[in-house]
Amino acid sequence: MNNCSETSLSAVELTHRLQIPPVAEVGTSRPLWSVMIPTYNCARYLRETLASVLAQAPASELMQIEVVDDCSTKDNPEAVVREVGRGRVTFYRQPKNVGHTRNFETCLLHSRGRLVHLLHGDDMVRPGFYAKMETIFAEHPEIGAAFTRTIIIDEHGNWTSLLPLELSESGVMSDLVERLVERQRIQTPAMVVKREVYETLGAFDRRLSWTEDWEMWTRIASRYPIWHEVESLALYRAHSTSNSGVYQKTGESIRDLNRAYSIMGAYVPGQRGRMLVRKGRQIYAASAVWRADDLARKGEIKAAFAQVRGAFRLSPTPLVAWWIFHMACKAVFATITGAFRK
Question: How many CA atoms lie within 13 A of 266 on its CB side?
Fold first, then answer.
């Protein structure tokens, strides 16, 4: 992977990806860090998010911290920023709801730091995150981004799982673009990107509604070295009201996977890229069938059917058809057995 130096996007890219202009070097303070926190109806978690940053934040001239709210309708994140931030955190509210992908664009446009950390308003970082990342970028100036291992937490902050190690010890991942074309491996709170990378490659792809971060990390990995830190320093919150939870129930998550694969397959050209996409589609189809089974058990039949339909569209193969048939038989058997027990 070669560090690229182009500063302009193609016409096709500009159609779907906002170009991020450089920060004016004259008359603008340039901190090392920009911690940009997009929010939407998640103020109940924002206190923890801000506290996790402020507990390790350097002075304001070294770290910009800003909450960018996508016109929340159910809570008041500005009040939380005033309460917890106490003047250290700035707040911007979108005049109208623009969707989370374009809210990310606003975060990038408002960022002034040389390193940008996008931290969802319901996620957190563990102590030492920023010091560790600062050291990594200082010692490895050739990298374009770096990410840590991630802990998954629930809506109460309990640890539920730990994402797998990508390397046995910290370092640059030479094959990361191939791993990412196959499947998502990096949660947003774990990733830090040089602002100049966004300036070169553009913002998140507007065609995507759920996988925009995955596509962004894959795009970066196709052009820049990326460092993986094995220490678990990021916390990603999984809950039913998050975008992920909502999109899985409507089937939009599967539709967006299709869109993402149609874009990302080009990042690994030729037969190798096509093979990775086929494998990835099958992995997510299997996951959708499993999720459909779980939703059906909970009585969420409409959501279960959305996942089943999506699974076959994602990977219309005999194997996926067999998985769906097997799941349907189990559901019918469970229904009949339950009727007899009554």
Answer: 6
DSSP string, 205-235: -TT-SSSHHHHHHHHHHTTS-EEEEEEEEEE
The DSSP result for 67-87, as a single string, is EEE---SSS-HHHHIIIIITT
- Give the model's pLDDT for residue 282: 92
Are residues 54 and 131 located together in one domain of the fold? yes
Which residue segment(s) compose the domain that 186 sits in? 11-237
Residue found by looking up tokens 């040089």 in the block: 194
Q: Is the same domain home to 229 and 249?
A: no
The number of residues in the chain equals 342
Tens digit of each residue's pLDDT (9 = 90 or more) over 278-289 = 999 999 998 888
Give 10-residue mean pLDDT values along the chain (342 residues).
46 82 87 98 97 98 98 97 98 96 97 98 98 98 98 96 96 97 97 98 96 97 98 92 62 88 96 96 89 81 82 83 73 58 49
321: three-class secondary structure by DSSP: helix
**185-234, pLDDT tens digit by residue?**
999 999 999 999 999 999 999 999 999 999 999 999 999 999 999 999 99
- Domain end position, chosen among 187, 220, 237: 237
- Distance, in Å, from the CA atom of 182 to the CA atom of 267, rounded to the nearest integer, reads 11
SS (H, E, C) 252-287: HHHHHHHHHHHHHHHHCCHHHHHHHHHHHHHHHHHH
Q: Could you give the CA distance from residue 232 to residue 151 in angstroms, rounded to a whole number? A: 7
**245 token code pair:** 């939870």
Whole-number Å distance between alpha carbons of 46 and 176 = 31
φ and ψ at 284, to 5 degrees?
Answer: -75, -25
